Amino acid sequence: MHPAFSVVFLTTLIGTGQGLFLALFSAQAYSELNLLPSMSDTSFFGMGSVLALVFLVTGLIASVFHLGHPERAWRAASQWRTSWLSREVIALPFMMLMIFIYGVMHLFGLDAVIYSDTSGNHFSYSLIVAGSLAMVAAFILFICTGMIYACIKFLQEWATPLTVINYALFGLASGFTCAAGFSSFYNAPELTKFFAIWAVVLTVVVLVTRLASLYRNSRIKHKSSMKTAIGVRHNQIQQKSMGMQGGSYNTREYFHGKTAAFIKSVKYIFLVLVFPLPVILLIAGLGTADTMLLVAAFVVQFIGLIFERWFFFAQANHPQNLYYQTV
Amino acid sequence: MTQLALVIDLNVCVGCHACVTSCKEWNTSGPAGAMSDDNPYDKDPTGTFFNRVQTYEIGTFPKTETLHFPKSCLHCEDAPCVPVCPTGASYKREEDGIVLVNYDKCIGCKYCSWACPYGAREFDEHQKVMKKCTLCVDRIYDESLPENERKPACVMSCPTSARLFGDVHDSESEVSIAIRENAGYQLMPEWGTNPSNHYLPRRKTKLHYHEDELQRADNPLNKEHSVDPVDAPTLDDSTSW
User: How many cross-chain Cβ pairs, A to B, lie less than 8 Å apart?
Assistant: First the structure.
């Protein structure tokens, strides 16, 4: 496929936004259960939500550039019974609204404790109401985003549960890395440690699942061939004319138009930028308590994710390309 | 239930592109607006088409054969492009099975074109909506046309009658009989899309001669030399009555 930068940025940015919110949510849940010290600066979760919303809104703006008629985008919520894209269009704004409410509750002191017990465990409204709904929506959104690609069965590189798993884990990993950098500005070493360790764990887990999908795709057997495409049983079928002279939508949309060496280099770039470098920077940042190293870990990983997403799109081989071989 | 479709006879198609130009002419002049072109008389001409004729060479020289292959939307019975549409702009008509795009609802997200394994949909870069073959839905029901002209423009224009049009769910229709009797097949059956359009394969007309058909048994030139050896057993020799 031809990777569209609008979709590359949409998927990476909203993934990070979702992951960042889930990092904040889990930190709040941990601290309310007394597993982490509670945050002294009350603006942390509020400002964190603002940062998550910045990622989500930027992603949404990027997606607008993908549409021919963005003014009709509201219609895209109508076919949620059949279309994963439509489900995403519902889940994303709902999650953003919940994160907004969650952030407002924290920023403007509208939070209150629902329940507490004698040992100091407590639950607040922000966590149980807005936070939980946003958390559920974030996971549903990961599934929607992944399924948009995984449900097209003839795009065999995408049609695997690994697609959904990778979308979710990449979002979580980059979100937790972002949270580690963000929390270190608040001088909360316990929280930074919590985020950074989970960021390392998630990055290692997604390395395993991404390598699994790379391995799967490297030995994929395509079901369609020239024989099934035009229905002629012969091993030697050569296209002489595509039916047009100067190219068409079919020759532009489904081809990345790059050399095999270029694709391979993108793969190695993302394998370095997404996995080992951020892990080294996170561990170094944690050891030296250097905010800039933690922020650098996130920036490096996010740039790597843009390469990863570009590669994800470029690697998919659409069967319609069989009809357009003389590009 | 009716399922209108085309049956394309690859044995007859000569690759003249009359269906391509006729399709473009009819549909670019239709109520849905022009099918835009860019640089039509310049370098790298490009534009939106519903129908293309491609050419393939089968085999290696000197044992080769040229195949002209018209390609348009196959109006699949299980069209994978329809359920993925987030707005409902892509739909399959209940009454005749034609897959259509409502250009007023389409947001131009291109997801349906990704979900079509045949690459039958083309994005109009000027109207910013997805376009595809309509099976000339604005023609086939037009009662102001004489009845024999209520066919898609490509079918009307084909000089060799390589394109048939009709209801593939009606067993006695011209198209069903053609599919049944001439080994009509579907493209990429492996994806379960169940395309309504069928293709009829290349069929070789061959005469099979048997050795003895080349030798006239009653050739008068051979009459005088008896082919039977004199001492061959007679019927009486080999039969015991």
Answer: 179
Task: Tell me the C-alpha distance between B12 and B212, whole Å.
Answer: 34
B164: which strand partners? B7
Domains, chain B, ordered by start:
4-200 (3.30.70.20)
Count: domains in chain A? 1
How near does any CA of chain B get to the CA of A60, in Å?
Answer: 14
Q: Which of B58, B89, B185 sits opposite A234 (nearest CB)?
A: B58
pLDDT digits (tens, 9 = 90+) for A291-316: 999 999 999 999 999 999 999 999 99
Is the per-residue pLDDT at B225 higher than 70?
no
Interface check B30 vs A, CB under 8 A:
no
| Touching A: B residues 181-220, CB under 8 Å | 185-191, 199, 201-202
pLDDT in tens, A102-147: 999 999 988 888 888 888 788 888 888 999 999 999 999 999 999 9
Residue A225: inside a domain, yes or no?
Answer: no
* CATH at A115: 1.20.1630.10
Eight-class DSSP state of B185: B
**Residues across chain B:** 241
Buried (b) or exposed (e) across B47-67, using 16+ Cβ within 10 A?
Answer: bbbbbbbbbbbbeeeeeeeeb
The answer to whether position A124 is within a domain reads: yes
DSSP codes joined into one string, A6-35: HHHHHHHHHHHHHHHHHHHHHHHHHHHTTS
Look up the pTM and report it: 0.91
Interface predicted TM-score (ipTM) over 0.95: no
Distance from the Cα of B148 to chain A's closest Cα (Å) equals 29
Domain housing A108: 5-220+247-322
CA distances from residue B205 to B8, B40, B61, B179, B201 in whole angstroms, order as listed: 19, 41, 22, 18, 13
DSSP 3-state helix, strand, coil percentages of chain A (rounded to 5)?
70, 5, 25
